[in-house]
Fold:
Amino acid sequence: MALGHRAATVSYAGLCVSDTRPDTVTPDPLDAFELRWLAEATRLREQALGPLDAADANRAARTGGGSLEQRVCQRARVLDETRGGMADALRRWRQHAQLVALGLGVAAIVTGIGLGASVLGDGQRPVNVIWALTGLLGLHGLTLLIWLAAAVGLGSRGASLAGRLWLDLTGRLGRRRDETWLPRALVDMGQRHGVLTAWLGRLSHGLWTLTLVSALASLLALLATRRYGFVWETTILSEEVFVHLTRALGVLPGLLGLPMPDAAAVHRAGGAAPFAADRQLWSAWLTSALVVYGLLPRALLWAWCAWRWRGFRRHFRLDLDDPGYARLARHLSPPTEAAGVSDAAPGQLPTFHTDHGTEISDHARQALALELGPDLPWPPAALPVAQTGGRLDTRDARRAALDALAAHPVERLLVAVDARLSPDRGALALLAELSRYSQRLGVWLCRGELVAEREPIWRDALERLGVGADDILAEATTARHWLEADDD
Structure:
């Protein structure tokens, strides 16, 4: 990131947004997965708190085109820019998660060093090989069994204690309102696609790998610089138990060509004093057991979890059959978008008033905008400022405009619509309702710099509604002349 004048084009799941801002820092762009994650967090928020007023975001998504999933992501991005800040919260959460993971990694390294030193001691007393092995692998083995049980469906989110700790600590760093939906969405996505165990397992196995690597390094350093004797001790077990245990744990290291203690060495280690000639055998047995039964499984599981999570990020797609997205489908991609009026017609639309018997005393003229795209400015320079009203993008704005026109009808009312979108039932019904409060209603088919492929569809729908061909306008100049024309 750099300061200064910058022109950047950022791609969001197939939607390109050009951003030119002087002397600002360009925020870290969200990748395709993070944009879908943002859409999921927005869905959960709306599911819990109710739908947002998103007419402008819906319109921008429709105008942007693309698949339904791309439109959902575009809607989430525009909502975030205008009302949210959730994308910034996502970046903060990502930074907090990395910071907590770094702190846990440092703690794992320190723990491993301490573990290696504690099992060997200061060299003044012989090392009990059974206690040393239990100290090195006991907790690791227990947590590994719990995780494996969860991986095959016998556990839940609680299987990864390190993962839960990471989530809790990350959540404590980010207590802002928008940040709470992000981990919820990520956990929900992981649970529904069966990768939650792998996601949290990356951290758990990664921390254990660091711990065991540090313990191995500490163990080797102490064995190289101090003289240790190795014994085993028991009151009720026979020597044969330790012979079988040593032989069983030495099978895999033995396949690698490492020298392992034999039965005679086990018998000697059970004596009153350690046998000096066996020090290297027991050192190799202890370190190889740590590598083969501790370090290698954790490293391989970490690699597997990372592979699963990377594949999930690459292939994850929104579940558009979810009720939250199904509700958006009709707003973002009308079912008859290619041709015809979006939404099937009801039994009847409000009647378009062609006689216009309303009495007008001051020959008022007014122009309104109905769901224009964000690239179509309003009020436009082509129309007189005194004759332009507001934008009818929300239910409240439409109600206020109807109330005002009911109190003060106008002689001519010009309504600008976005001709790049299909005419829907609600727009046609509103035009019919607006016609009650004007002696003559005109519709301006705005299209910006693009070719309006749906302009013939609009003309056909408006003519069937009752709007005259002379009152359907396609150019800014024609719209102005129509608004200022004298009916006398």
